[in-house]
Amino acid sequence: MNRMSDPVSKAVNGNALNEDHLDPTVKLRGPGVGWRRFFLFGASVLATAYAAGMMTDVLGSDQLTIMEMVVIAFFTINFAWISVSFFTGVVGLVLRGLKIDAITLKRLKPISRKGSLRSKNVVVIPVYNEDPNRVFAGLRASYESLAATGEIAAFDFFVLSDTRDPDIWIAEEMAWAKACSDLKARGRIFFRRRAENTERKSGNLKEFCETYAANYDHMIVFDADSVMSGEAMVNMAYLMENNPDAGIIQSPPQPTGRQTLFARILQFISRVHGPTMSAGLSFWCMGSSNYWGHNAIIRVQAFIDCCGLPVLSGKPPMGGHILSHDFVEAAFMRKAGWRCWLIPQLEGSWEELPPNLIDYAIRDRRWCQGNMQHARLLFAPGFRPLSRLHFFMGVMSFGSSPLWLLLLLSSTIATLQNTQLTYSFFPSQFTMFPQWPVDRSFEMLVLLVFTIGMLVVPKIISILMVCLGRDRKKYGGVMVLASGVLETLYSALQAPIMMMLHAQFVFSVLTGNQVGWDAQERDDTGVPLAAAFKTHRTIIVIGLIWGAVALFVDAAFFWWLSPILAGLVLAPWLTHWSSSLAIGRAARRMNLFVTPEETEKPEELQTLARLSAEAPDANVKDGLLRLIEDPFANALHSALLPVRKPDRRTQIEIGIIYEKLARLGVESLTRDEKLKILSWPVKPLDQIMAGKKDDDAKLSDNLA
Amino acid sequence: MTDLTIASQGFSYAAFESAAVTRLIDETAHAWLRSFKVDNPQAHQRLVNELRTALAQDAVPATEKESMQDILDQAAHDAIASWLANLSGQDDCFGATGFAMMRCAFLSANCDHIWSERFLDRDHANGDLAAALSIQMMCPTPVLKSCVMPRQSLDRRAVS
Hints:
heterodimer, A: alpha/beta, seven-stranded mixed β-sheet, 25 helices, 12 strands, 7% strand, B: mainly alpha, 7 helices, transmembrane helix (chain A), transmembrane (chain A), Nucleotide-diphossugar_trans (chain A)
């Protein structure tokens, strides 16, 4: 592609005319991009080679069996995977410790803007059957924060509904009207519902791009549970304005707001260790960073021009529409020459986590399907090498689990084989001395410590940095150490469960099973013990059988495997107790797993909590009944319906449903029937039931 | 001979209005006022008058229409829409969306029933009501700017 005629060059050159308007202090550039990657991957390769050599030495002290070779192969792949993560963490720790900007490698300083925003931006919130109270509470918290910056004129908000539940649909409309009215934001907060929700979230955004997006320069994409501070949003828009070759700028969202023990543990470690990993990633990815699907700002025209997703050949789950669209959109941006940045120091960006392990696994099942699809894009022509690496990392984030499982299983088989071997002190050929068995237990221990160290050292140092830092009070003071120890124990027990679940998901996807599209659970819901047992029954059985075999093979090997076996067998209790809201709150009282968002709650999260408390879930009631009873809801719904005419068949169907409604009442209609009559404009619905309400009787009295 | 055919032949409509039709007109007016949350007797009478006038002027025999109720509903819709169009100066009050939008604005403005007695009042200068409606007008979407988002191919470089 001719560099001067590509869309990025055009945009940059267009802006170059106004080069003096660009603020050089926020220019996203940094030295030694190649060297950074050379260091990271070089160090990873060296560490992997060393570990693989040591493993070969340990297992091959006598003679290598075929199964031992398999073990070495799986070990090498898995070690390479964790060593990239380890060195990313090491770099992140250095950058954090020295307070150096991961991109410019200069002293880290806050973004200071020179002048007001010149661009027009939109915050888009794609929703699908989400709790409207939570969605609009997040929107209002972000809107109010933005208004406080004085830059609200540069932003609109747009709720893009794909909701298929009639009750939630009507509640969304009412919540939108209330938000417009309360915030005096008519003409600034918009709402539209898609009639057909093809291609899920990416289709929702595509439809927006083809209708209203061209009104804006940049769009900030939210998830249904996202909240961002006004400062963060304005800074992102400012960075976009001053970096005309930037296609996507991603902020690192911090998980917050959940109270169950499970969520609190994850929130804590994400807050403590997340910035380390973000800084490390940003250091070596530079302008080839990834897009995580939300809490990011996107250049609208670039997105429209080059991010229309292809449809993969074949059937789902590996073919069809692309599910995990974010990685692919970033790859297409890079393919067209736009840069994608991760800015670790962008604070004021929040999201929420699933409240328990089962909901977390449900989300992972969805992501697994999406990420495994990316395997088909790994070798597609035109993508940049780092985009392919992001695809690979996405695949490996789930694919590594079956590899670990295979490593452990092959180790068990190899150990079983070794116990069957009889050692020969005097081999067939002549030797001066007997061949003594070689004891490699020390090397084995070193290898174990080395591997575990790669997994946990960056995290432990992050915890120590927080503990020794000035901000430790925000994390619960000295209790941050106890939180760190408990988190390490918990994650060690949870890891085998996730390994089994992920292995199951990968197998399920590869054998052609696909997952549906459900809204994520966003309340602090617990998991009853019986439900946890039901979910994990296979895992428990596998754990027990595996433990028995290991004990039968070699008691030492059993103890070697015991941390993994413990996680598997204890899975239901771990899931049940970690989902407890009471234990989560008790942990908070004990200053365990505390995050700065709790000790010094930002204004936006305070607003979110207040609005969520004001608007209970009960606001989502029967949508059709609401339209019949409340003329405003009725008028609003009619006003928001797209102008279209039903075909003859649909007209007849609607007529039949109306007849049923008039004769048997709202309760007689199914969800699909309600959805159908709500989807088409008709004469005011409330007239159908005229005279059946109390206020109607009052009205009659007045008229009389 | 139905009431309507009598009306279409030039007789005085009111003289021939049956009790059933009176009741139907009343109920229709009642339902439409309820959909605007208006509970004012004068407004009710104005709508009843509009409906009677519409029936009297209707030249089409009732047998050619689907039902008397449809005629009345259409008449009520048209009467209110033309009043709202006059009031707001907007021409698109007759379409489903425009009408619903105006209904929303009226319901918001009239939440404490201060405008109920002005409903359908064509004699009063309604500048203040028009201003109240314009403040309450909802705007669900901005200006439509259609474009095509081309599907990328996995076989070649990105479209430039």
